[in-house]
Amino acid sequence: MSETTPRDPARTEFSAADLGDAETALLLKSVLIPRPIAWVGTVADDGAANLAPHSFFTMVSGAPPIVMFSSTGRKDTLRNVEATGQFTVSLVDRALAEACNTTSAPVGPEVDEFVLAGLEKEASAVVAPPRVAASPAVLECTLERVVPVGDGHCVLGRVVHVAVREDTLVTDARGRTLPDPARLDPVARLGRDEWGTLGDVFAQGRPRA
After folding, report:
1. pTM for the full predicted model
2. 40 in a structural domain
3. 98, 114, 147, 209: least buried by Cβ within 10 Å?
4. How far apart are CA 175 and CA 156, in angstroms?
5. Is 163 exposed, middle or buried (0-12, 13-18, 19+ CB in 10 A)?
6. Which residues contact 87 (CB under 8 A, 6 or more apart)?
């Protein structure tokens, strides 16, 4: 049985009830780091393209492969996904960080963020929404469901196609060809206005029973 040790170094304790939702959310965004960015591409009913970053993003199922991003409030991305049932997720590398930030601007649905950020569109293989042509890896997804949670909406999407730039792929000793983390060079969201790069990468084999 593990022993209880004194608090060293000292901690500052924060009560969520005392802070309130807004300040607690700011604190969490600075603690839950790094967060991968889902750069979500969608199209509206009239075919207008939309591109926006979402940093509440992860994989939630392997069989079938399901990813999730959360939209705070009902934004263009959510409305388009609900209307068409499709979206893309383009990986954001260091070279695309500034353009990604540009697409977070609070503009109207008539604005094409690809054009706003000077990004070239690339046709997807399976779904209608376009991909970011310069992205090193893109997921093409179909909508599974939208789950309202608090002031957010969790968008669950089934990954139906993955496109990875060839120069990021490496074949390992077991014969598996997968992206190399350093070659992908992803960026992540931190707290405040801070972003982060991958940094050091280390491997640890999983324990066996």
Report:
1. 0.91
2. yes
3. 209
4. 31
5. middle
6. 40, 41, 42, 77, 80, 81, 127, 129, 141, 143, 155, 157
